[in-house]
Structures are given as C-alpha cells and as structure tokens.
Amino acid sequence: MARYTGLFIVAVSPDLLRQSLIEILQECHLDVIYDTGDYIMAREIPGEVPFGKLVTVEVLIDRPMDTPDEVRMNFVMKNEELPLQLDNHCRQMFDSLSEAIAESNEWQLLETAAG
Hints:
Elements: E1 2-11, H1 14-27, E2 30-35, E3 39-44, E4 56-62, E5 70-79, H2 89-102, E6 108-114
Antiparallel strand pairs: 1-5, 1-6, 2-3, 3-4, 4-5
C-alpha cells in the first residue's frame, strides 16, 4: 500500500479555510466523501486509473487556541498500489496536492513537512 503524509501550517481565517480546502481537493480530482469540519476524507474520482490505484486522502485540521489565524493540516494520502516505483500514481497525486496547497492564494503557507 502506497502511503504519503504531509503537514502544512497556514495562516488563514477559519471561515475561509474549509471552503478553500474543498476547492483545492476538487481541483486535484478528489471528491469529498466525508466532512466533519476538523476532518475531511476525499477520494479520487474513478475512471482514469485502475481501481487499485484510486487515491484516498484524509485531512485532519487542528486550530491551536493560542494562534487563532494559524491552522495545522495533516494529510495522509494512500491507495492499494504497491510503491514499487518512486514515481507511482499515489506519489504523483500527493505532489500535485502539495503544490496546490503551497501555491494557493487563499492563505499564507507558514511551514510544510512531508513524510
């Protein structure tokens, strides 16, 4: 199973965060299937890749009390594909989503880390 994780700390108002994040996920061909406000799960739209390569992303959103305009987003992107190649489909999707988050005009990227 391919699995990639990322942490993004952004400066954004809480009101703008959720809608902006959902739009970014949709731009990356991911459909939101579960949303509780502080947790979002999205799945790649079927049709372009085999079923085993379809990517699922989970986003855990943490708003620290001491900095109200700073938000931590932990991403886990995974699929059933064995990561036998460094440049597999899951990694390509992770890189695409990471780039979209980093380049978004809706917030200021403060810190990022990938695992």
